[in-house]
Amino acid sequence: MSYMERRLADMRQYRPDRTAPEDLEKFWAATLAEAKAKPLNDVRERTSTLSPYIEAYRVTYEGFDETPIQGWYLLPAFGGEGKRPCVVLFHGYTGGKGYPEQYSDLLMLGFAVFAIDVRGQGGETGNLLPQSFGMTRGWITQGLLDPKTSYYRAITVDALQAVRWTAEQPEIDPDRICVAGASQGGGLTLMTLALSDIPAKGIADIPNMCHMDYGILNSTGSLTEAAEFVSRHPDKLEAVLRTLSYFDALNLAERIRKPVFVSVGLKDTICLPETVFAVYNRIEAPKRLQVYPFNGHYTSGDHFRKMASFLLEPAESRAEDE
Amino acid sequence: MSYMERRLADMRQYRPDRTAPEDLEKFWAATLAEAKAKPLNDVRERTSTLSPYIEAYRVTYEGFDETPIQGWYLLPAFGGEGKRPCVVLFHGYTGGKGYPEQYSDLLMLGFAVFAIDVRGQGGETGNLLPQSFGMTRGWITQGLLDPKTSYYRAITVDALQAVRWTAEQPEIDPDRICVAGASQGGGLTLMTLALSDIPAKGIADIPNMCHMDYGILNSTGSLTEAAEFVSRHPDKLEAVLRTLSYFDALNLAERIRKPVFVSVGLKDTICLPETVFAVYNRIEAPKRLQVYPFNGHYTSGDHFRKMASFLLEPAESRAEDE
Amino acid sequence: MSYMERRLADMRQYRPDRTAPEDLEKFWAATLAEAKAKPLNDVRERTSTLSPYIEAYRVTYEGFDETPIQGWYLLPAFGGEGKRPCVVLFHGYTGGKGYPEQYSDLLMLGFAVFAIDVRGQGGETGNLLPQSFGMTRGWITQGLLDPKTSYYRAITVDALQAVRWTAEQPEIDPDRICVAGASQGGGLTLMTLALSDIPAKGIADIPNMCHMDYGILNSTGSLTEAAEFVSRHPDKLEAVLRTLSYFDALNLAERIRKPVFVSVGLKDTICLPETVFAVYNRIEAPKRLQVYPFNGHYTSGDHFRKMASFLLEPAESRAEDE
Amino acid sequence: MSYMERRLADMRQYRPDRTAPEDLEKFWAATLAEAKAKPLNDVRERTSTLSPYIEAYRVTYEGFDETPIQGWYLLPAFGGEGKRPCVVLFHGYTGGKGYPEQYSDLLMLGFAVFAIDVRGQGGETGNLLPQSFGMTRGWITQGLLDPKTSYYRAITVDALQAVRWTAEQPEIDPDRICVAGASQGGGLTLMTLALSDIPAKGIADIPNMCHMDYGILNSTGSLTEAAEFVSRHPDKLEAVLRTLSYFDALNLAERIRKPVFVSVGLKDTICLPETVFAVYNRIEAPKRLQVYPFNGHYTSGDHFRKMASFLLEPAESRAEDE
Amino acid sequence: MSYMERRLADMRQYRPDRTAPEDLEKFWAATLAEAKAKPLNDVRERTSTLSPYIEAYRVTYEGFDETPIQGWYLLPAFGGEGKRPCVVLFHGYTGGKGYPEQYSDLLMLGFAVFAIDVRGQGGETGNLLPQSFGMTRGWITQGLLDPKTSYYRAITVDALQAVRWTAEQPEIDPDRICVAGASQGGGLTLMTLALSDIPAKGIADIPNMCHMDYGILNSTGSLTEAAEFVSRHPDKLEAVLRTLSYFDALNLAERIRKPVFVSVGLKDTICLPETVFAVYNRIEAPKRLQVYPFNGHYTSGDHFRKMASFLLEPAESRAEDE
Amino acid sequence: MSYMERRLADMRQYRPDRTAPEDLEKFWAATLAEAKAKPLNDVRERTSTLSPYIEAYRVTYEGFDETPIQGWYLLPAFGGEGKRPCVVLFHGYTGGKGYPEQYSDLLMLGFAVFAIDVRGQGGETGNLLPQSFGMTRGWITQGLLDPKTSYYRAITVDALQAVRWTAEQPEIDPDRICVAGASQGGGLTLMTLALSDIPAKGIADIPNMCHMDYGILNSTGSLTEAAEFVSRHPDKLEAVLRTLSYFDALNLAERIRKPVFVSVGLKDTICLPETVFAVYNRIEAPKRLQVYPFNGHYTSGDHFRKMASFLLEPAESRAEDE
Prior knowledge:
Six copies of one chain form a homohexamer.
Chain A: H1 3-12, H2 24-37, E1 43-47, E2 54-62, E3 68-76, E4 84-90, H3 104-108, E5 112-116, H4 151-167, E6 172-182, H5 184-195, E7 201-205, H6 212-218, H7 223-232, H8 237-246, H9 249-252, E8 260-265, H10 273-280, E9 287-292, H11 303-312
Parallel strand pairs in A: 4-5, 4-6, 6-7, 7-8, 8-9
Antiparallel strand pairs in A: 1-2, 2-3, 3-5
Helix pairs in contact in A: 4-5, 6-7
């Protein structure tokens, strides 16, 4: 057995305890009910791009609160009349929805795309979630003392509403909606798969929001903001760990019922392999894992082709772990 | 002439152009009028500390908007009955008001202290300023597209209201209020001296908010947030530079009329010596400069004693540049 | 005048001496004649992608020597029958031609694409240029003691042959070929524009191969390989500087006759602004410059849209400096 | 069990072998006898501060040899006539005793303070310990080939003499002397508690001089000086490890009989958690541990308040581990 | 048991699985036969140095292919007429054979020296091994998809031919040839000892080419080039691991029959202690290990003296592990 | 004019003011007189090496005070009976005299060698200079408040006494003594050339102790210790600058009367090119400069050969600047 085989075998067997709070299911049931009851108040406006082959719309909708979440809703101008499959995309931490042209690769596959801003971050979308306590630099410590006021809750509901909005569009086949994203976007993908029946499959690249009790001590990524918050306010340790546990895919993985494609870098110090495997190992749905043994926090090579294959496969064909 | 003499002589003569927008005075006149008209809605509650010699109050007041700004108002339990001088303190970026005990050194000089949180940062104070566009990590890009909605405006008014609140306290001699702080706190000190008649003197250690047109290109500190914001949104360059110019002490330095003590580190890469000298050289009030030739972004040695001397001097005695 | 205005004004006036050797024109005349006389020995094979809208070919051709240079030749499957414009793409240092799907954004604009590997680097293309002396890590020190054996010469000719090959393809309008690339790819773009009549315009993002006598002392990029080579072999200093001068766009800029779009980051430590401006200031053709004042070695924001606008403009419309 | 619980449980059970040399007790008995027999030759001179509420003395005394060790002896000017408790303070590596004002927080609690320089470091105190062999940068390799000539021995005795001096002052209640310090100062606190009957309690923040056989291989702190010394002189490995073992709190922890308050950062790379827990787990006296799970080599938040509580508790009340 | 004793005991017992491919012996038998059959086509030319006591020759010979490998062949001008022992030296990665004078220390011991360039690296020797696929920066990914075309194979044969050439020189006692080197040179030493009967002993300082299945995941040295190659071409993982296994001393260690002296640094992140011990523990020949507990990738102190002792000992005296 | 030519031309003209104190000559006259009057109390003992061709002696002598300075005195066992030339060697900061074998290259040229420890640093030599004030990590702040007690004074006199000792040895031709060293050793070389008539020439590689008023602000080397010292004790700035000026080769360069060979790296951040050129430009003796345009704090390539050429040239042949 080579060293890499040993390392992978260890990872395949890593199965830390869940950290779910008692009222986890109740919390999410209430959250989902509230979200469903809230109108989207969406606006969809045609916008021009430099490409004659992209039919582009600037969309705003309300997610968790009144914040107008912005997104690009994009359709290829070719490929005929029928309903299309759509990929709902969540970007990585500090990023934004970018520009329509950057989704050309997915459009070229015949997919529609709905790419949203995560609130407050590097896109054009603000954030009206009230901040009632101090924070460390970044976003994740907003409202972190209580799961109900947590930024994580807001962005998860924003993501769920994006999926709901997509399913309502006339051009889209609601049975062929896929959620996807990397890092933070991968975390939101897992949350969306666990909390919504709409997505038919999901792609969670190097996802965060996984095994956060481990990540807060070991990650060099966004969880350092929570760690620094506790360092400043040592008496808030329990409250912070409790809040995180509501948004940890480790505690929700078993709710996932649709095929999922996950990727992981064994040298990733941001979304550490321990955290990704901990969640992946608990997923009971059809699943596939792409391991990048020498990658840090990035996928590489022909990864887009692997994603595309997964997207193009019939959903009923069972994803198999590679 | 030694190299250090040459370097200092160059700095003493550095006098870059002001970047003031046409309506600078109008902007501040309106802002100050609005602030003055707004009630402070303050709450002052006795709190206990472990020291029997500190009379401590937890204070909240409203500054720029409805956000309850928190502060510690502290009086030494000794030193007699009369009205006291008071130091109003603004902390550095990402920090907070901390704990009452850490101001013991000033209390021991016989001063009262009012140490506030800068909104949203590492203290206990939230931030209700609405965020209506994306941001980069940190605070300063909030509302940065318009001076009226800018985070800088909010924290400057918060600081001014802190001074106003102090002047209203029965224990305080309103003619002996000093403003002080380091880095961001030094920037707020300069702003407060320029915009309020209340403070009798000010201590601006290694201040930021100085010559920001230079800093945004060269500083490794908080202005990198604005630089990254422009990098993401290149079309916002002009708007960002314009907003910054309203809060640049370079454009307000000549309004300062009270003695001011400034410090600078020649190896500071955050609040670069060029930026501090640019402002210092324009101050026409009594002034004193402490140069730390080998310091980065920190003061050192007996700096507290230098501050204390300045605080204890009669205000009318002219500060002299060392 | 703000600090940024001062900085830009300085850059606009930076005009260091050319370092051209006496026989520069002769060298290139001979090189170009030799290249023209050499058959391309090309192979073009249809290959499948996951997208039904990309007509993709795997191409090999011979550039400077017998090395089979690999490239993707891509056509959008939509957009009608006529001859198309084409973008010939050169990648950055250590990179490769990647995968067809990543050029979807250009295809979506209606352009054909020919994206080649730079020999020996991170793509699939080897390198048969003989190595007859020691090297430092990387590629650029291969044959560096003599312009005739230099790796730079080989990759420049490879780039020129790529343009020649493109002009021969039946689907392509030879009057609407654009060359483009970033960093190393930007350097090859400038070289190709200077040395070939075929391209109708070029996009040189944050280009290297500019003012290399400055870069070898100050850049943190690939020229450190040449610097380290000289450090190991101090007696080779003159020979190395001489070889570089044959491949320095500073010495060839005045040969450029077609519109060119250049970008530069003022905080770029790899392709330093001094080096880009030195060349840009000498270009006499229609030209346009995009300055990213806060960027290191990257473009950002809507840069693709700026490139697309430039590509879509009629070539005869004069590019204007912004 | 969450990851943090697992990590803490592991640390609580970490109990590496002691490395005590055979003659450890004899060595210290002789050292203590010698120290006790040596006159302090102390000088205590009133000095002025800017605060009218601090009664300050500049003190020199002889510790291990003739080096005059300097210290600030400080009394609050308030609080009445009786004998006072006193905190004897040892600073961190490379530091110094600083300035009287910086101890205002302890004075405000009603404590006297005696803050000394550690010899030769960043204060005003020299070092007459003879250096008879080469050293690496820093202090700890002085005399490191023999416990009798070791710098560690000198500073430990200096610390013990500071305690002895304090107990002799007329203003001080000798039953309420506390020793305290962080890092190096925490190490000296543990040593002093183990070797002297005078202190009534001690506060060892993120202490060094713990489990040094582990630290010399893994710490990034001052033990790297010893490691580099061995790297230069590989034949001295045994001698160095032997010397260190005389000054390792791991070997002396069981001698501690007074309540002790210890803090540790789980991400501390200087005084690694393994080293602090190894010693803490062996202490049999009343003890309390403050774990900062996300801190490197620093305490944070309201740590001063935790220290103050511990100081103010009656010594007989048993400290309990939190 | 101290921590260092525990750490060493663990290392002494570390015995990971071999990763040898089935045809390993066949591969090397064929390779050695081919090499033996190939003429050396060597040239030996007297060259002058500044020292009258060095008899120096510039040598070229053909190793694996037609590349003329360069070396310095050096004899002390003193020490009499008889045949001499000789040290064949292989340099570290990116280095070169340097200058004759730098081998004065070995000449002063009475040894002849043959110091060669490793092909293509920082010396004067080129590299004619064809490159038929892309590479990452550096040398080791050349031909890495197939053991037959691998750069490792070429340099190993170059080293073996250097030994063969040495044995043919009239001044040399062929029974007293030692191979030696550090890092890459240490790896080549182990390979040469395993694959040739000529060397009478070998010194492998902090050797690479050991337990490469571990190193490719954990080393910060040259194996990162292979790791990055796989990151770019994920489908090549198996091929790369397979190729490396042919050149991993872990799989050839048991073929070593002559005394060998190995050194290792416990803090070496390039040639990690796990990799060196894995190989050392499998060597069945007389062996000696020098552990530098606090060293990174370097030897230190009197290491040359330890090497000299080993060189001067009669070969038959059994090396003993220290 | 290429950029490098411009840069060199600037350096050649760099001529900052001297910073010499009024009593500089008096200070050195007294120091030299005192040193001359002091007996060397030297011990010279034959020691064995592993090489039969090195005649080695372990030497101790007293330099500035009673500290026994250790050195290796080495003679080649070959080369006949007459008096030999000798190189007196001073090592770089933190180093030591090492082992006799490492000087084989100079012995091979026929030179004797006397290589000494700089007191207190990484060799075997202690340091009895009393330390009467605090220090920062390292050596140079010892006694820095007064030129008379400065560590620089002690090591300069130690170096001078080494030269004096050498001239007294029966094997040595006192007219052919050369002083040499790199970095700190280069600084001591310049000092020795300026203050003693004995040396016939000197080699100062990348020397420190040059233009220290510039270095203390800009160097990343040992002068940061002085800078940090001032940072801790801001009131000592003048005293520190004054002390340094006594040991700054800038103020003594014009005393040098013997040929000197200097080297400099244009990218050296420790001994910055400005500092080396400032001194070199003031030397009026025959001089030669080797510029390494791409080197940091190291020489490279065939530098030893350049040194050897300089050593072997007749002293009367005028060194010429290259």
